[in-house]
C-alpha cells in the first residue's frame, strides 16, 4: 500500500463527505465555465462577441441556461418506454461523475487538521475504473435512443455504441505503454513515476493516440456523429427536454473534464509543477495547495483544445471516422506496444548501451523516412467502363449521359389555350410540324 492509499484509507467520514461534495461542485462549476469559455472562444474565432450580457463578461450565461432548462416543460413521447426513458439520462451522467473519483488533483494537504491526499479514491486498478465507467456511460446513450420510440434517436444511439467501442479500444491500448513505464495501474503511482520526466515526451505516440481517442470517446466535434444535427436532428437526445436533456448535456461536459484530467495525469505529470518551476525553492511549488493550480492549468489546456477543434474542423464522414479508429489507430497502437516492450526488454537486460540504442533507433527511423519518400505511389489501373454502366464522377455521384443533343437555335412555338396562346419548344432533334408551327397572327 503506497502513502496515498494509506492517507485516504484513514480519512474520517466527514472528510470523505467533504471530498464527495467538493468533487461534485468542482465538476459542475467546470462544466459551467467550459460552456461559457467555449462560446466566448468560438465567438472570438468567428469575430463576434459571444455571451456578454448575463454577469461580467457573460459568465453567468451558462447558469441562466441551466435554470431555463429546469423550468422548461418536460415532454415525453407517446411511444417512449417510460421507465427506461427516464433512467437513461441518469445512467449517462452517473459514470461520468464516478470516473473522476480516482483522479489525483493534488498531493498531501491538511484539511481542518487532518492529513489527507487530494483524491477521493485510490485503487490499485484505477485506470480500469476509468475504462469501466466509459463503457457503462454508453448504455445511457443507447437506452435513450432505443426508448424514445423514434428512428433518428435510434440511429444516433447505434452510431454512439459503435463509436465508443472503437475508440475505447484505442484508448485502452494507449494506456499500456504508460503502464509498462510506470509499473502500476494506480493513477497516483503514475503521477509519482513522472516526477523526473513527463510521459508525453517519452511516449509521444501513446499521447497522440489518447488525444484522438478522447475526442472520439466524448462525441465531440469533429467526431460528434451520434448527434449530427445535419443528419439526425439531434441524435440520441432528440426527444428529450427539460432536466433530462440537461443531464445529457452535463454528462458530455463532465466527460470532457474527466478525460482532460486523465490526460494530465497520464502524460503531463499530473499535479507536478512544470519545468523549471519545480526547481524553485527545492520543490516548494510541488507541496501544499500549489499542485491544484498546476493540475487545473493543464486540464484547462486540454479543454481549450476541445473548443479549438470544434471551431476549426468540419465533421468527418462516418466511414472515414471508423476507418481512422480500426485501420489506423488500433494497428499502429499494437505495433507501438510491441516496440515499447522490445525497448524495455533490451534496456532491462543491458544488451545495448544508451548511445548504441540511440544510434540504431535513429538509423531505423531514417531508413523508414527514406523508404517513405522513395517508394513511388502505384496507382491501380483504370478499369474500363462497361457499355451500359453509368459513369461516376470523382465524388462517386452519377453524371448525366454525354450523348444528349440540344438544338442550337430551337424555334419557339405557340399553341392555343383557353386563356390565349403560350410558347412551346420542339423536342430535341424533332422538326417542327404543322401542329407545332407558329399560329398565324390576325394581322398577317
UniProtKB/TrEMBL annotation:
<feature type="compositionally biased region" description="Polar residues">
    <location>
        <begin position="411"/>
        <end position="422"/>
    </location>
</feature>
<keyword id="KW-0812">Transmembrane</keyword>
<feature type="transmembrane region" description="Helical">
    <location>
        <begin position="83"/>
        <end position="103"/>
    </location>
</feature>
<feature type="region of interest" description="Disordered">
    <location>
        <begin position="382"/>
        <end position="444"/>
    </location>
</feature>
<feature type="transmembrane region" description="Helical">
    <location>
        <begin position="198"/>
        <end position="216"/>
    </location>
</feature>
<feature type="transmembrane region" description="Helical">
    <location>
        <begin position="12"/>
        <end position="37"/>
    </location>
</feature>
<dbReference type="InterPro" id="IPR018086">
    <property type="entry name" value="NADH_UbQ_OxRdtase_su1_CS"/>
</dbReference>
<dbReference type="GO" id="GO:0048038">
    <property type="term" value="F:quinone binding"/>
</dbReference>
<comment type="function">
    <text>NDH-1 shuttles electrons from NADH, via FMN and iron-sulfur (Fe-S) centers, to quinones in the respiratory chain. The immediate electron acceptor for the enzyme in this species is believed to be ubiquinone. Couples the redox reaction to proton translocation (for every two electrons transferred, four hydrogen ions are translocated across the cytoplasmic membrane), and thus conserves the redox energy in a proton gradient. This subunit may bind ubiquinone.</text>
</comment>
<feature type="transmembrane region" description="Helical">
    <location>
        <begin position="245"/>
        <end position="268"/>
    </location>
</feature>
<keyword id="KW-0472">Membrane</keyword>
<keyword id="KW-0520">NAD</keyword>
<feature type="transmembrane region" description="Helical">
    <location>
        <begin position="288"/>
        <end position="309"/>
    </location>
</feature>
<keyword id="KW-0874">Quinone</keyword>
<dbReference type="InterPro" id="IPR001694">
    <property type="entry name" value="NADH_UbQ_OxRdtase_su1/FPO"/>
</dbReference>
<feature type="transmembrane region" description="Helical">
    <location>
        <begin position="355"/>
        <end position="375"/>
    </location>
</feature>
<comment type="subunit">
    <text>NDH-1 is composed of 14 different subunits. Subunits NuoA, H, J, K, L, M, N constitute the membrane sector of the complex.</text>
</comment>
<feature type="transmembrane region" description="Helical">
    <location>
        <begin position="321"/>
        <end position="343"/>
    </location>
</feature>
<dbReference type="GO" id="GO:0016655">
    <property type="term" value="F:oxidoreductase activity, acting on NAD(P)H, quinone or similar compound as acceptor"/>
</dbReference>
<keyword id="KW-1278">Translocase</keyword>
<feature type="transmembrane region" description="Helical">
    <location>
        <begin position="123"/>
        <end position="146"/>
    </location>
</feature>
<feature type="transmembrane region" description="Helical">
    <location>
        <begin position="167"/>
        <end position="192"/>
    </location>
</feature>
<keyword id="KW-1133">Transmembrane helix</keyword>
<dbReference type="Pfam" id="PF00146">
    <property type="entry name" value="NADHdh"/>
</dbReference>
<dbReference type="GO" id="GO:0005886">
    <property type="term" value="C:plasma membrane"/>
</dbReference>
<keyword id="KW-0830">Ubiquinone</keyword>
<dbReference type="GO" id="GO:0003954">
    <property type="term" value="F:NADH dehydrogenase activity"/>
</dbReference>
<comment type="similarity">
    <text>Belongs to the complex I subunit 1 family.</text>
</comment>
<dbReference type="GO" id="GO:0009060">
    <property type="term" value="P:aerobic respiration"/>
</dbReference>
<protein>
    <recommendedName>
        <fullName>NADH-quinone oxidoreductase subunit H</fullName>
        <ecNumber>7.1.1.-</ecNumber>
    </recommendedName>
</protein>
<keyword id="KW-1003">Cell membrane</keyword>
